[in-house]
Amino acid sequence: MNALMSSPGLIDPVPVARPPMPRSDGRVDLVGLTREAIREELERAGLDAKAAKLRAKQLWHQIYNRGAREFATMSEIAKPHRVLLAERFAIGRPEVVEMQVSSDGTRKWLLRSDDGQDYEMVFIPDADRGTLCVSSQVGCTLNCTFCFTGTMRLVRNLTAGEIVGQVMLARDALGEWPSQPDGRLLTNIVMMGMGEPLYNFDNVRDALKIVMDGDGLGLSRRRITLSTSGVVPMMARAGAEIGVNLAVSLHAVTKAVRDEIVPLNRKYGIEELLQACADYPGVNNARRITFEYVMLKDKNDSDADARELVRLIRHYDLPAKVNLIPFNPWPGANYECSDPERVRAFSMIVFSAGISAPVRTPRGRDIMAACGQLKSAAVKISRADLDRMAAEKSAALEFTQ
Ligand code: SAH
Ligand code: SF4
Predict the structure, then answer these.
(1) What is the pLDDT of residues 208-220, one digit of tens each?
(2) Would residue 120 show up in a list of annotated catalytic residues for this protein?
(3) Distance 113 CA to ligand 2 centre (A)
(4) Which residues contact 146 (CB under 8 A, 6 or more apart)?
(5) How much is the pLDDT for 35?
(6) Which stretches in the chain have pLDDT values below 50?
(7) Pick from 5, 155, 160, 181: most CB atoms within 10 A?
(8) How many CB atoms lie within 10 A of CB 117?
(9) In Å, what is the CA distance from 243 to each residue of 49, 195, 238, 279, 294?
(10) pLDDT the model gives residue 387
(11) How many angstroms does the Cα of residue 16 sit away from the middle of ligand 1?
(12) What is the pLDDT of residue 149?
């Protein structure tokens, strides 16, 4: 036994329990709490252990399987109990500030939390699937230079309730209660909205556990994808504790370019990142890692870049596919999207090496449905402000290195 292990207090592996935050009306929102936490809340409200356990199970089913919004409709619970529950607890939904529908059917919501923070979610319907793009933070601490969210200050992490609440709101809007395995419109979830999910690990994990729960929202882990810009130390935990598909925002294959466009690369470099991908549990040819690659004119889109991408994927022996994303411009951005011929040529090089490299079709352009853009329409920020914020964040990142 070494000195550290024998000194209690230096390392505390037991997560500290955080009591749920009451809403402004004083009630506790049950959405986002684990089954265990709901049971504890019920005990705190005066139920004995056995009754709390049973009631927690009933509430879980009502909230996540039936989509109940009020206690009053829960007929299997005696009426006086429903009244008591409604006095202490709530079944919340994010407030909808604005909803827009694109000509291609993409829907985008601007949502507001109880404490007045705005975030967004996007639903993208396709012929064979419907994908909900979910946010994990209000803003982002990272500062990828091509991403509008990266220009925002991080306000705070979203709670597990606010994350799972996005999925529940989408189910409300699509009329998809009770949860059922067949004929759904909402079939897939991608953690690709605002924020870096692996910087809000616990809440993202707790929310996705509810989404995957058989008596919860009931979506298979194979239909959920978590996208990270490369928070290497959290990737193994994501694999072990969440186990969903992994997407990695690679975007560049040389240190110089990735350092510039994904500044987190200065902390966790390309080799480390690809090794963490190779070590990600459950990766095989049927469950490949997706590398996202935003196509930026004259920045990362040359034939040499494509060939280097192939070399790296082969070198780490990664079961991988590459998603080529046409850059979505925003007011004040310093990049242009690569020409379509360039994107095609890049895709062909990767594809002829036997690696799938589809070009993602831009969706919802008329409503600016790309990452972070709804807020951009609401909050106009000047070029000078953008530069100042970028400098501040860059300094903050240097500081944490
Ligand atoms: N923070 C996480 C997840 C959110 S971003 C991450 O970076 O992976 C989701 C995806 O949208 C990322 O691949 C990101 O690089 C991409 N993206 C951000 N801004 C974009 C833009 N203006 N045009 C095209 N893709 C963009
Ligand atoms: Fe944050 Fe992802 Fe945008 Fe980078 S691309 S600034 S990590 S949201």
Answers:
(1) 999 999 998 999 9
(2) yes
(3) 21
(4) 251, 261, 294, 296, 327, 333, 335
(5) 92
(6) 1-18, 378, 380, 397-401
(7) 160
(8) 16
(9) 32, 20, 6, 13, 25
(10) 64
(11) 32
(12) 85
Place of tokens 């990695």: 248
One-letter-per-residue 3-state SS of the chain: CCCCCCCECCECCCCCCCCCCECCCCCEECCCCCHHHHHHHHHHCCCCHHHHHHHHHHHHHHHHHHCCCCHHHCCCCCHHHHHHHHHHEECCCCEEEEEEECCCCCEEEEEECCCCCEEEEEEEECCCCEEEECCCEECCCCCCCCCCHHHCCCCEECCHHHHHHHHHHHHHHHCCCCCCCCCCCCCEEEECCCCCHHHCHHHHHHHHHHHHCCCCCCCCHHHEEEEECCCHHHHHHHHHHHCCEEEEECCCCCHHHHHHHCHHHHCCCHHHHHHHHHCCCCCCCCCCEEEEEEEECCCCCCHHHHHHHHHHHHHCCCCEEEEEEECCCCCCCCCCECCHHHHHHHHHHHHHCCCCCCECCCCCHHHCCCCCHHHHHHCCCCHHHHHHHHHHHHHHHHHHC
Does residue 230's CB lie within 6 angstroms of at least one atom of ligand 2? no
Ligand 1, atom 5: closest residue by C-alpha:
192
Minimum-distance ligand to the CA of 328? 1
Residue with structure tokens 């429903």?
82
**156 touches 137 (CB < 8 A):** yes
Q: What is the model's pLDDT at position 388? A: 63
Gap from CA of 389 to ligand 1 centroid (Å): 18
Q: Which of 120, 162, 176, 292 is catalytic?
A: 120
pTM of the predicted structure, to 2 decimals: 0.89
- 350-377 pLDDT, tens digit per residue, is 999 999 999 988 788 777 776 555 555 5
What pLDDT was estimated at residue 390?
61
- Residues near ligand 1 with C-beta < 6 Å? 144, 146-147, 192, 196, 227-229, 249, 292, 294, 325, 327-328, 330, 370-371
What Rg value do the Cα atoms of the chain yield, rounded?
A: 22
If one residue of 292, 299, 365 were mutated to test the ligand 1 pocket, choosing by the most ligand atoms within 8 A of its CB, it would be 292
Give the whole-angstrom CA distance, residue 53 versus residue 62. Answer: 14
- Work out which ligand 1 atom sits closest to the CA atom of 328: 23
Distance 36 CA to ligand 1 centre (A): 34
